Amino acid sequence: MDETKPLLSETDTKVLRGHKRHLGHLENYFALLQRQELYGNFSISCKLNHGITYVDLARGLRSIVLANPIMMHTLVSATNKDSSWDELSNYYRSSEYLDKPWPEHDFMEVVDQLSLKDVVINEQTNLYGDLLTKLQNQFQKDNGVITEKLCDILSQVRIPVYQRNKPNWRILCLTDDPNNNDSQSFDTLVYISNHCSADAMTGINLFQDIVSEINKPDTKTIIEGESQESLQIWDYERDYLKCSKLPLPITERVNYVPSILTFIWLIITTIVNGIFNYKSPCEDTQRITESEPQVCYQSFVRFTQDEVSRIKNKINKQKCTMTALMQTALCVTLKEHGIFNNRSMNEITFDITVPNNTRKGLPDSLVDEQYKYGSNVGGLHYSYLISSFKDSQFWSLARYYNGVFKSADYLVGLGSIMLGFITQNKNIDAMIADSYLNKKRGGIILSNVGVINTTTSSEEDTLQIEDMLFMQNLGVLNFSYSVNIVTTTSGGMNLCMSAVEGAVASQADFTALGKELHAKIMNKCD
């Protein structure tokens, strides 16, 4: 469908049916990262024990999107609803938009049509032709393994927003067979998201649900006789009665908004940390563009199931969590590697953000029914003394970090932009862009999604997940390093680390740092 075509006249009907609503405050935050070109993408890769076809994928997706319509939403401008993204991209960065507050956010709306070709990036050669060729060639060159080189290419994929009939995510289907064609199968899938109403658990849950749906013996083909490229997943007029309502924003279920005193304390600590936090030698942050991809180095650190078991035994004895261990190992290894050797005299602290999953604050039944998918996150942003990063104090440091995590407020940072007097009087896009752009980069964003059970519940389940990776570059977020961790019961633990050019000397240097990190962790856990 032509992206410039006006919205259907039935749009108001969608509101009444629960298939269109305003973005919540957190959803708007991730949307503005795209409007202002501040963030690229994150991705979750999934290695299967055998290949699946496009038909299988469409069968799996249909049940998922009907139960979770947030997976087939698109963004709709509240002020220029008939404009294409080419027009909107200029509008959202113009004084007309940025010079005044917009207390009511844009809309999310369930798309009218969704076919496999709308979500499978392999079928969108008009947008991704060159990148797709690079991805497929690299995967085959690496013998069917997701590597740092492929991750670097993935980071260049941009998922357009405000597209009339396309959601904010894609799936890349990969095979290491150079003779594969569309009628054959793929055993590696990659979920790629621009972060709009999606987080890492969204991608993980998607793959688990796809596998579960495909394993059901009664799952039927979508539309008989259609070509695989155009397999239809959803038609609004045909299927709306079967579709669940969009869930309320997570910010209407969980109270992110801090008290005024907490907000004042946040402002004070932010100012102080701005003076004393480490600033890496990276270039100042700039908007990300497709023409000039952000240069980053990648390093994967993999732990076998046996190594994970040894690590778990040790952290249980030391009374700390995996995230606390990883943060300790990162800080000590960075210091021993010489990262802080040339810092200024006033740079005495190192800032780390640890995202968390706010679904944990909801009843399990509500999560399963409505919040498996979506951007349901918070985050702790904390600064630590660089002088404390001592190998001799490793486990006491890990226990200290563990205590910080347990007592922390993970909602105050994002909640501060949701305060009424701010949303009513400030342009949130402008405020966030000003705080992120043309700034020095600091520390780490450390995301650990935990242990994912990939063991199937039935011997009859023939399709299984063997391994997963969680990959992410930083965009304009004011960090120098991104560390993303996922552990599966079948594949062990994978750390996918990214460093912005300038944070370390070179790719070879960052690869060496990854090896040092692995050695540090296993040395402490043996």
UniProtKB/TrEMBL annotation:
Alphabetical UniProt keywords: Transferase
Domain of life of the source: Eukaryota
Gene Ontology terms, MF aspect: N-acetyltransferase activity
The protein's name: Similar to Saccharomyces cerevisiae YGR177C ATF2 Alcohol acetyltransferase, may play a role in steroid detoxification
Organism, as annotated: Maudiozyma saulgeensis
